[in-house]
């Protein structure tokens, strides 16, 4: 655990709130910002985040605010936890409010929806390439972190000292933070695993068994490695917490909104209705489109992710998508 810091956490959904609780438990002060005044009113009134993470009282060290100036003034650290669709928009508000050399970390998992860019590339666009940047990723359901259940994640940064700083802020006996220098690999894992979690939800929803689930996870990992290494990530990253760890977590547990999207699609629900039922961000829906475009432009085969894209965007039924996967010709497993 590091000396007491003042952290601006930008994004007050379930993950921003859970990380804020963790930081407060670690002895830090947190300013939790939301763009939504009604949400901040509710946090102040209820003393908890009833909408996104009910049942966890907000400690005195946590100050909810709708003012970005108040959140950032004098903050020692800044952690973005907004959905990927809001990432650039929020990032753009930061340079005029932060010293030029202050680092920025994020725990968002996804690609920029309109461009398919990795989020550190968006950060380069907005902030330049010299600032310390870090991404926090890995198998971590907000609810379990809020409950203090043991969790391990990865912090990948462009500067070793910055990875160490963010890891130390988050690290505790119940939350192990490992460091990495592979931002690309860690970002690809966090984004693309969501598409594979939708696939596994579909398979489980259609009544396929444990064999199918294991096959999807393993062949899904091969897809992650293929696209991630083509984009410049290191192969070993995909075997770690941000890769295999998060893939297994989201493919196997119904706390995952992406997996629940797949289960809903298998019940015959359309995407809009399923999103409304889930009521929270489901990053894999837009990421499936970006992965489809990226894989095509890189000439990479991602058959499972491709079928998820077809179900989401081309009115292919879950049954047809499954049949298309099963009808593929045999091929060598490796290579
Ligand atoms: N929930 C988890 O367990 C978990 C774990 C790891 C990573 N993540 C990632 O964290 C990110 C946030 O997810 P979440 O689970 O907290 O989402 P959530 O659905 O719980 O909450 C979304 C939050 O984003 C805010 N928001 C929406 N549009 C915004 C905008 N334009 N500007 C600013 N804020 C906006 C909403 O007000 C809300 O507070 C996602 O990328 C997700 O993949 C989530
Ligand atoms: O609920 P999901 O599917 O967005 O997954 C949440 C986290 O990414 C799990 O690590």
SSE inventory with pairings:
Elements (H helix, E strand, L loop, with lengths): L5 E5 L3 H12 L3 E5 L3 H10 L15 E4 L2 H5 L4 E4 L6 H5 L12 E3 L12 H9 L5 E5 L4 H5 L4 E7 L2 H11 L4 E6 L2 H23 L4 H21 L10 H12 L4 H10 L4 H8 L5 H15 L4 H11 L4 H9 L9
Parallel strand pairs: 1-2, 1-4, 2-3, 4-5, 5-6, 7-8
Antiparallel strand pairs: 6-7
Bound molecules: nicotinamide-adenine-dinucleotide and SN-glycerol-3-phosphate (G3P).
The site of nicotinamide-adenine-dinucleotide has 28 residues, from helix 1 and helix 4.
For the structure shown, list the relevant keywords.
335 residues, alpha/beta, Rossmann fold, N-(1-d-carboxylethyl)-l-norvaline Dehydrogenase, domain 2, 2 domains, eight-stranded mixed β-sheet, 8 strands, binds nicotinamide-adenine-dinucleotide, binds SN-glycerol-3-phosphate
Instruction: Output mean pLDDT.
Output: 97
Sheet with the most strands? 8 strands, mixed
Order of helices and strands: EHEHEHEHEHEHEHEHHHHHHHH
Percent helix = 40-55%
Family: Belongs to the NAD-dependent glycerol-3-phosphate dehydrogenase family.
Protein name: Glycerol-3-phosphate dehydrogenase [NAD(P)+]
Keywords: Cytoplasm, Lipid biosynthesis, Lipid metabolism, NAD, NADP, Nucleotide-binding, Oxidoreductase, Phospholipid biosynthesis, Phospholipid metabolism
Binding site for substrate: 109, 257-258
């Amino acid at each position: 655990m590091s000396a007491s810091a003042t952290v601006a956490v930008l994004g007050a959904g379930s993950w921003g709130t859970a990380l804020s609780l963790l930081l407060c438990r670690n002895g830090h002060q947190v300013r939790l910002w939301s763009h939504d005044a009604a949400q901040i009113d509710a946090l102040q009134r209820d003393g908890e985040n009833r909408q996104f993470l009910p049942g966890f009282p907000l400690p005195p060290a946590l100050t909810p605010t709708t003012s970005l100036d108040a959140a950032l003034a004098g903050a020692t650290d800044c952690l973005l936890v907004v959905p990927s669709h809001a990432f650039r928009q929020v990032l753009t508000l930061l340079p005029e409010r932060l010293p030029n050399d202050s680092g920025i970390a994020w725990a968002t998992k996804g690609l920029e929806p309109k461009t398919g860019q990795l989020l550190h590339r968006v950060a380069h666009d907005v902030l330049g390439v010299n600032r310390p940047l870090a991404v926090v990723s890995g198998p971590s359901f907000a609810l379990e972190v809020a409950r203090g259940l043991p969790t391990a994640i990865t912090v990948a940064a462009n500067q070793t000292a910055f990875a160490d700083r963010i890891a130390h802020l988050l690290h505790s006996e119940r939350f192990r933070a490992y460091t990495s220098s592979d931002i690309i690999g860690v970002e690809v894992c966090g984004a693309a695993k969501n598409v594979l979690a939708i696939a596994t939800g579909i398979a489980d929803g259609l009544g396929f068994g444990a064999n199918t689930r294991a096959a999807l996870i393993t062949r899904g990992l091969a897809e992650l490695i293929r696209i991630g290494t083509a984009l410049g990530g290191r192969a070993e990253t995909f075997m770690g917490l941000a890769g295999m760890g998060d893939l297994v977590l989201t493919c196997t547990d119904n706390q995952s909104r992406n997996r629940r999207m797949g289960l809903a699609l298998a019940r015959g629900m359309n995407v809009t209705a399923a999103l409304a039922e889930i009521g929270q961000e489901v990053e894999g829906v837009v990421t499936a489109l970006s992965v489809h475009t990226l894989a095509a432009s890189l000439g990479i085969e991602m058959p499972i992710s491709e079928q998820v894209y077809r179900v989401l965007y081309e009115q292919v039924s879950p049954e047809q998508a499954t049949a298309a996967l099963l009808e593929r010709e045999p091929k060598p497993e490796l290579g």
